[in-house]
Specification:
This protein has 67 residues and is mostly beta strands. The protein has a domain of 46 residues. Helix content is 9%, strand content 43%. It has a 3-stranded antiparallel β-sheet with strand order 1-2-3. Strand 1 and strand 2 form a beta hairpin.
Length: 67
């Protein structure tokens, strides 16, 4: 059994496998918007992230907002 102790240490995520797509979404307010969906995975810990921005943004801006 192998323990990876580095996964418990907080780190700055290094995102890869970034997928930016544009779909229609319904905002929490009930309005339908043309939105930007972002999916990515951290190289170090394998954590996956899914974000939805309720407006159309550029791919460059979406990658910058991954944070």
């Amino acid at each position: 059994m192998k323990f990876d102790f580095f996964s418990f240490i907080p780190h700055a995520h290094k995102w890869h496998n970034i997928i930016v797509s544009r779909k229609g979404a319904v905002a929490p307010t009930g309005r339908a918007h043309y939105s930007t969906h972002i999916q990515a995975q951290c190289q170090r810990c394998g954590e996956r992230i899914h974000k939805v921005y309720y407006r159309d943004i550029s791919d460059k801006q979406a990658r910058r907002w991954l944070g």
